């Protein structure tokens, strides 16, 4: 599936920037190959426009913000948060501005410390992460970086038990025990839920600190939710009571590059385990995933074509994702778009 060629994927909310990084300076982002620009108006609310001036197509993000409006850096045409051109400096005051001088605006929201954008009427809400408002949990922001992957590859990977023994053999995987239990999947309207119990290794200081244990092994009870199309939440519970909730978003920049945003909620304190220690372990784990997923072809086939990819029972979550996304496309009158050849 080529994500930029499936218009229905524009009808979801995607996190694009850290909220703290967006102020009165215009910030560019590319979402599903659309160039957009985000800034904050004086009352603190967010504005998002297509990053293309309607005069000579210059990037508005090269301009500046004045009184809450964005001023194009080329000739100064000025647009408000709704995309209406409110000033053409070269015109006399009594000369009207054409109603056609406007730029597309997009819906924005601020949640969990991130700026979210939907390019078209959203089909559902921004996912609910219960721990965000639960007492006793803190949020640790972990990663904001581009990976050269198709977004769906990371979603499949996040529910793929079989990769742990091999990809994570340097951190918590055990290559001596490659057999995994089949995951049960409870399908929801906008994704699915799946639980899992896994014995894992705790190797070295970084892992022991992050998991707050001194043993060499532990058991993870996890509940994972796939939020269609490219967000997962995995709540990991350890025997000694620690809860570590991973939120991983693969926001598609284009068909082959995704912005990876990951943060966690934990029911411990900075004094128990520092943020740096929490990040260090997940850093090691995600770099293992990154190296291998970047080697996979980004154009994930939804239709399970004979011969293109082979499957095994533990691949089921990914196959359910493919089926559900295929159904979504069909419901919206779209055919799956693939790379030619
Ligand atoms: S290109 Fe933007 S004002 Fe001319
Ligand atoms: Fe992994």
Task: Give a structural overview.
By secondary structure, the protein is an alpha+beta fold. It folds into two domains: 9-118, Rieske Iron-sulfur Protein (3-layer Sandwich); 130-330, Alpha-Beta Complex (Naphthalene 1,2-dioxygenase Alpha Subunit, Chain A, domain 1). 16% of the residues lie in helices and 31% in strands. The chain has helices at residues 151-158, 163-167, 204-211, 275-293, 316-331, and strands at 14-18, 27-31, 34-40, 46-50, 64-66, 69-71, 78-79, 85-87, 107-111, 114-118, 138-147, 184-188, 191-201, 217-227, 231-237, 243-252, 258-266. Helix 3 packs across helix 4. The radius of gyration is 22 Å and the shape is globular. Fe (ii) ion binds next to helix 2. Residues 157, 163, 167-168, 289 line the site of fe (ii) ion.
């Amino acid at each position: 599936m080529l994500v930029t060629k499936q218009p229905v994927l524009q009808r979801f909310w995607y996190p694009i920037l850290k909220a703290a990084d967006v102020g009165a300076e215009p910030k560019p982002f590319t979402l599903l190959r659309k160039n957009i620009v985000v800034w904050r108006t004086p009352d603190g609310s967010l504005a998002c426009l297509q990053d293309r001036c309607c005069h000579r197509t210059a990037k508005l993000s090269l301009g500046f913000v004045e009184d809450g409006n964005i001023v194009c850096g080329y000739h100064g045409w000025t647009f408000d948060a709704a995309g209406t051109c409110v000033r053409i400096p070269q015109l006399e005051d009594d000369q009207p501005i054409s109603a056609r001088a406007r730029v597309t605006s997009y819906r924005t929201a601020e949640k969990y410390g991130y700026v979210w954008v939907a390019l078209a009427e959203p089909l559902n809400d921004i996912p609910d992460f219960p721990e965000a408002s639960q007492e006793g949990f803190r949020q640790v922001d972990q990663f904001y970086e581009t990976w050269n992957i198709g977004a769906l590859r990371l979603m499949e990977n996040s529910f793929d038990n079989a990769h742990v023994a091999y990809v994570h053999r340097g951190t918590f995987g055990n290559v001596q025990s490659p057999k995994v239990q089949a995951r049960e999947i409870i399908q929801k309207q906008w994704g699915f839920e799946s639980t899992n119990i896994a014995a894992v290794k705790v190797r070295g200081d970084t892992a022991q600190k992050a998991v707050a244990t001194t043993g060499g092994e532990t058991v993870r009870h996890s509940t994972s939710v796939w939020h269609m199309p490219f967000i997962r939440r995995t709540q990991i519970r350890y025997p000694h009571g620690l809860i570590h909730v991973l939120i991983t978003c693969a926001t598609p920049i284009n068909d082959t590059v995704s912005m990876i945003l990951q943060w966690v909620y934990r029911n411990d304190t900075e004094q128990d385990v520092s943020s740096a220690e929490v990040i260090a372990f997940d850093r090691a784990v995600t770099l293992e995933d990154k190296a291998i997923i970047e080697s996979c072809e980004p154009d994930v086939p939804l239709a399970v074509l004979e011969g293109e990819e082979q499957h095994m029972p533990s691949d089921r979550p990914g196959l359910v994702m493919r089926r559900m996304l295929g159904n979504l496309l069909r419901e919206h009158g779209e055919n799956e778009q693939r790379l030619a050849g």
